[in-house]
Amino acid sequence: MLHEDADTYRERQEEFISDLTGTTMLELVLVSTPIPMGVWLLAEAKVLLAGCEKSLPAFGWHGFFVELLAVVFPALVCMLWPSLTGTLVLSMALTSACCRLKRQYRMTCSGKADRSAEMPRGKDLGGPMMEAVTNIRASIMLMTCITILAVDFQVFPRRFAKTEVFGTGLMDLGVGATIFASGLGSGCRVKRESGHPRSGRSVWRTMLADIASTAIRAWPLAALGLSRLVVIKGLGYQEHVSEYGVHWNFFATLFFLRLVVVPMNRIRPVRFKPFLALVALSVYQWFLAKGGLSDFIVHAPRDSLFAMNREGILGLVGFVSIYYMAEELGSQISAHHQRLKARQHQQFLSSSVTIAARANVVLWGLTLLSEAFIQQTSRRMVNLTYVLWVCAHSMLMLGLLMVVDSLSLKRPTSRVLAAINMNMFPVFMVANLATGAVNISMRTLDADTLSAIMTLTIYVVFVAGVAVALSNRGLTIKV
Hints:
Strand content: under 5%
Number of strands: 0
Shape: globular
Helix content: over 70%
GO molecular function: glucosaminyl-phosphatidylinositol O-acyltransferase activity
Main location: membrane
Subcellular location: Membrane
Membrane topology: Multi-pass membrane protein
Structural class: mainly alpha
Protein name: Phosphatidylinositol-glycan biosynthesis class W protein
Radius of gyration: 23 Å
């Protein structure tokens, strides 16, 4: 291996991430639970240590590393050693419960009333959204950032990497969940506008103007997509063509997603957007199942620009559907919050958990039915089952975070997660640059377990540190 040339090593890397079939949906749910449990543990521990103080404790380096230990590192451990997930999650839940019981015992012995329930709950540090939405958006981004580097090491379970055609892997989930997080945030921020559509000519002119202005604002995505393409081709970096295509990558997907989404915001009524997206997805799924489109995506020669990038181009249909389903969910949460803003926060959470539970039953039921009777889950095709699965999994995590929020007392939001939520694109960009730097500086495929763990630990601390540094300086970079 010491004298192995670059081409041979690249071939080994490409074989390392090829022909994978993934794992079960249940295992992916389990390895996603450490972050919600860490948020609960952090909340209970802070309340226990801070007593009934109304101000949050100072967040310096000590606080930063405490949050790494409670929230970030457990996620990393469970991704690398999923067999430890049950033990770790149970330990975190028991520790959180013990913190709660100890505080209640302390208050009982002192004869003081527990005023924590009367205090205003921690304000969302990442914007005007409720804490659970902040946490799920940041959790998705954190897990995505971890996996994009971890997948290059032998210590990362192969079943969590992207699948070749059909199947469910952790990285398959990360792609769609990132877009789900974007749509969820958009739905929570944007108010529903009333009014009637303008004349056809005016609407089309406005849409074209929106596309042009969006392309200008989203130029960093296009630049990163082109830069990644040039670097991969120029440096001989490993690539898996069946992920997105020959020239396409995830940054290109994000860029063109923006070009589709922004002009569609002119559609009235606004609830017609997710309906239109689902109709398009249904037609797309019919062509996949009955029209030979699945065979084209998997087996057709790459003899034209479209054929070379068919996964990325055709996958936009499914990704747009994920975005609008998440946006509709976010707008419903925001509207529900506005209706109950004059009432107790606990009542809002209780009703939100009920809504999330019902949505989970529906989405998981549809996912399992689609998997059994329509087509297996395929991130490569971004088919109907994949869209339903991403939304179901994300909704389950959101519901779990709502439960954690309702269980907690006065709960300061995790500063690390809030910081990631404030600057999701810069954090993702830094993670990609750091991943490239690591792969250029070392042969990750040949790294032993200790070297891999040390590298990944430094990497996650660096990425989280960049997010916190931007937050502390009040910098928010949107694209």
